[in-house]
Design brief:
It is built from 6 helices and no strands. By secondary structure, the chain is an all-alpha fold. The chain has one domain: Orthogonal Bundle (DNA polymerase, domain 1), CATH 1.10.150.50. The chain starts with a helix and ends with a helix. About 9% of the residues have low confidence. InterPro entries: SAM, SAM/pointed_sf, SAM_domain-containing_protein. Pfam families: SAM_2.
Length: 100
C-alpha cells in the first residue's frame, strides 16, 4: 500500500477525497509531508479542499512556492488519490447497475 493510499484510508475510514474538508486536507498534508512547510501553509492559506486537491497541478504548486523536487512527490501522491477516487466512482456505478 502506498503512502498516499494508506493516509487516505486512515482519514475518516474511507471518506472519499472529493469530500475532504480543508482541515482534512491539512491533516493529510501534515501526515504525508511533515517537512514541506510551504505546502502545508499554502493549503490553509488557499483553503484547499479535497476537490481542489484532486485538481492540483504543477503550476499551482509552483505558484504556492513548492520546490520542484517536492512538486513531483506531491503530484505522484495526488495521482494515487485520483486513481482511488476513480475506482470508487466505478464501484458506485457498478453498485447502481446491479443493485436492483
Amino acid at each position: 500500500m502506498s503512502k498516499g493510499t494508506r493516509a487516505s484510508t486512515q482519514m475518516g475510514c474511507r471518506k472519499r477525497v472529493c469530500y475532504w474538508t480543508v482541515e482534512e486536507v491539512h491533516d493529510w498534508v501534515k501526515g504525508q509531508y511533515p517537512s514541506h512547510q510551504t505546502f502545508l501553509l499554502a493549503v490553509g492559506h488557499h483553503a484547499i479542499s479535497g476537490r481542489a486537491l484532486l485538481r492540483m497541478s504543477e503550476g499551482a504548486l509552483e505558484r504556492m512556492g513548492v520546490k520542484p523536487q517536492q512538486q513531483q512527490e506531491i503530484l505522484q501522491d495526488i495521482l494515487l488519490l485520483k486513481v482511488q477516487e476513480e475506482l470508487e466512482n466505478l464501484n458506485d456505478i457498478f453498485m447502481e447497475c446491479f443493485s436492483s
